[in-house]
Amino acid sequence: MRRTVLEPGVIMGQWWHRLPDGRVQCDLCPRYCKLREGQRGFCFVRQARNGGIALTSYGRASGFCIDPIEKKPLNHFYPGTSVLSFGTAGCNLGCRFCQNWDISKAREADRLQAWASPEAVAEAAVQAGCRSVAFTYNDPVVFAEYAIDCAKAVHARGLKTVAVTNGYLCPEPRREFYAHMDAANVDLKAFTDEFYRKLCFAELAPVLDTLSWLKRETAVWLEVTTLLIPGHNDSEAELARLCEWFVTHLGPETPLHFTAFHPDFKLRDVPATPAATLRRARQQARAAGLRHVYTGNVHDPEGQSTYCANCGRRLIERDWYYLGQWNLDNRGCCRFCGARLAGHFDPQPGTWGGRRQPVIIAPQF
Q: Is residue 341 assigned to a domain?
């Protein structure tokens, strides 16, 4: 799609309509922000301009960095490979515990110091030897037009695309957005409406709808992450409901990551998640029928390694982001029993390890 450029870094967006009272409604996410000329939406980067909705962060990023794919986290999507990662600014949720609040809550002038066209992003990933490009750090939903254009350029160069997202978007933009994504890690913040309303200023139902839709209607490789916050979403009863829904709607082969919270942003009075809580949640999820459950943000080689769902042998050994033992054959099957491991795998694992390498892209606009 040809974009209408209003000024450098600002384009007319998609997914909006005019209201009878003269306002414009943004139809990108379930907030449906209704704005008068000049007003900005909840995400801050979408603004009523020129009689429509403009994206004010197109081609602008908070920085580019090469990460291990496991950091997204994606454990079943070309393990060991490197991914060029970037985000912009803003978010359509208001999580009081946000672990990337300096980016997600930033005004674009505060953080968006890097400029790059979609073609420049793709070229940088190719030159760096990355297997994929990830739209992450803040939620790519709010810069969907830029992410889609980057994804097209990335696919044209033979690389894969990854969305790290909260899953909070409407059906029409969702179809177009995910038509250009190869993999996604969706944050399932909790499994109660109360949590989403009080701590995220959002609703649970649209996220569950996105997850079900991704699994049912697309070929996007899906993994899910839940950040366990002590006293808020880590009870056995809540995790039991989450796991029951997960197995029914996403299936036992979809990987689930339980990650540790650390006090941040506006939730500093809650302690960090004990490693024992993550191990208990992992055991509970596996007992409920999930076959690939992981722990994150703690040192736990057992909880971060991948095991065969058929014979139980270790297939991929992980110590943080470093891979050790590799027991998959060239077809992505267990070397011991021949059972296929769900996911996408190269014949040999990547060797990127745990490095984090900043990348500077020369402005192309």
A: yes
Range of the domain at 271: 61-347
44 shares its domain with 131: no
Domain CATH for 189: 3.20.20.70
In this predicted structure, the answer to whether residue 104 has a pLDDT above a threshold of 50 is no
**Above 70 in pLDDT, residue 138?**
yes
- 295 in any annotated domain: yes
What tens digit of pLDDT does each residue of 20-39 get? 999 999 999 999 999 999 99
Asked whether residue 185 falls in the same domain as residue 220, the answer is yes
Give a yes or no: residue 268 inside a domain. Answer: yes
Same domain? 42 vs 186: no
How many residues are listed for the chain in this entry? 365
Nearest alpha-carbon partner for 43 in 85, 90, 94: 90
How many angstroms separate the CA atoms of 179 and 252, rounded? 24
pTM score above 0.70: yes
Residues 200, 158, single domain; the answer is yes
Residue 111 pLDDT exceeds 80: no
* Domain-embedded: residue 72: yes
Same domain, 125 and 11: no
